[in-house]
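Q: Give me the 3D complex with magnesium ion.
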Amino acid sequence: MLEVKDLHAYYGDSHVLQGVSLEVGASECVALLGRNGAGKSTTLKSIVGLIPSRRGKVVFKNRQLDRLPTHRVARAGIAYVPEDRGIFPTVTVDEHLGIALKAARGRSSRRTADYVYQLFPRLAERRRNLGGQLSGGEQQMLAIGRALVSGPDLLILDEPSEGLAPVIIDSLAEVLNAIKSEGTPILLVEQNYHLATYLAHRVYVLSQGLIRFSGTTSALIADETVRRTYLSV
Ligand SMILES: Nc1ncnc2c1ncn2[C@@H]1O[C@H](COP(=O)(O)OP(=O)(O)OP(=O)(O)O)[C@@H](O)[C@H]1O
Ligand SMILES: [Mg+2]
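A: Here is the predicted complex, encoded as structure tokens.
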């Protein structure tokens, strides 16, 4: 499905990604873990074309994506939910979904606003509220819901649980689990080790721009050295 090979990225002179390789298979949920500043968000941004990679290859459904602009990456079927969620403060919940539906015109897998409202009943209650009136949890639900309306072939999430209360994280975990069960492949960046290991089939651990561990979730859970050294858990 997604194949990232030897990706390098720089901010000015700083060599932030030093050859990152990873894969996400069909129906797979893959977590990318690592401490603050490890390069997780940079990896995701390089995949979706928000920052140019200087070297390496991103192949999605047998098509080379690197050097494609972000809107073309979206059209290729990758939905990306950024760390900051990107909700417009003066646009209603309904309108957010409407905009996303319009952008997904022509995709046969396109879903409806009702699909999102069934997944997140709380959003249905707030459909006429503005983005700026939503709680952090509701904004995250909207960001994920908006990403799902295209019926993406891959969902990329950057720290969906960040800043959310434990009870909200629990309900988010159930929704992501449902999305996973429907067979949508997910690439998940998380600081929340428990959420990541609950959802992911496989895990990559990143530190200082290099992949230090790659394996099944149970292999990570069993590997105390990797957990202590790179994740402090
Ligand atoms: N726009 C930027 N300009 C310069 N340096 C940056 C920029 N964005 C990130 N960096 C640096 O690149 C490195 C990797 O950042 P990145 O955001 O990918 O880390 P991360 O793993 O997502 O961390 P976090 O868990 O804090 O979100 C860090 O050292 C960071 O300071
Ligand atoms: Mg980040």
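A quick observation: The longest strand covers residues 14-24.
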